[in-house]
Amino acid sequence: MKILITGTAQGIGKAIAQEFLNKGHEVSGFDIKDSSIDHPFYTHYKVDISQKDKLPDIEDVNILINNAGVQNANDIEINLKALINITEKYGLQDKIHSILNIGSASGHTGSEFPEYCASKGGVIAYTKNVALRVAKYNATCNSLDPGGVLTPLNECVINDPDLWQEIMAETPLKRWATTEEIAKWAYFLTVENSFCTGQSIVVDGGESINYKFVWKD
Predict the structure, then answer these.
(1) Is 83 inside any structural domain?
(2) pLDDT at 194 over 80
(3) Catalytic annotation on 116?
């Protein structure tokens, strides 16, 4: 199938692209940075997805994965508005098989930077909107909402022993996901899944269900 993934230069997006390439799919990747992916079935577009009028023309996308995102800088513009523009341009057409938006557990809990949480909360609502609109093509649209993932963007806390210990205390499985684990979820929800739609799948090691109950002995 013909796959379009945003944010493929590193982290989750790169891992998802490699997962699809390993399975024999044709992948196009968007990123503001250059890509290190070297594969005959991969085409890289160096593009700022917030610039709607400069998006390249790519027809008949079968699977669209909106992965590109930022944290605490232009969150609404990139994480939500650009995601909407990408989806409206490439996803709303009769060759589409599935759309996946990479959200965040913070969109459910609100426990991060204000605009980041707001942008990811918007992704959850927009996912439901798109699911209704692509159903006529027998296509699905879901969001995959990770908690902590071992990516370069998170190294500032991963490499801080005190912060890492505090984070692990709030994470029942006592670890964060690898990018490869998230990529496998992305593949399942877009290729193998054919009936789950309009849903937000939280993959966070149980962090968002943890709570502290304080009471008198």
Answers:
(1) yes
(2) yes
(3) yes
What's the rounded mean pLDDT across residues 87-94?
98
Q: What is the pLDDT of residue 217?
A: 59
Mapping DSSP to helix (H, G, I), strand (E, B) and coil, where does residue 204 land?
coil
**Does residue 216 lie within any of the structural domains?**
no
Find the catalytic residue in 90, 116, 126, 187: 116
> Residue 123: which CATH number?
3.40.50.720
Instruction: Give every strand in the sheet of 98-102, ordered side by side.
Output: 42-46, 26-31, 2-6, 63-66, 98-102, 140-146, 200-203
In a domain, 172, yes or no: no
CB-CB contact of 172 with 202 (8 Å): no
Q: What's the domain range around 83?
A: 2-149+178-207
Among 149, 195, 145, smallest CA distance to 171 is for: 149
Is residue 198 one of the residues assigned to a domain?
yes
| Mean per-residue pLDDT over the chain, rounded | 95
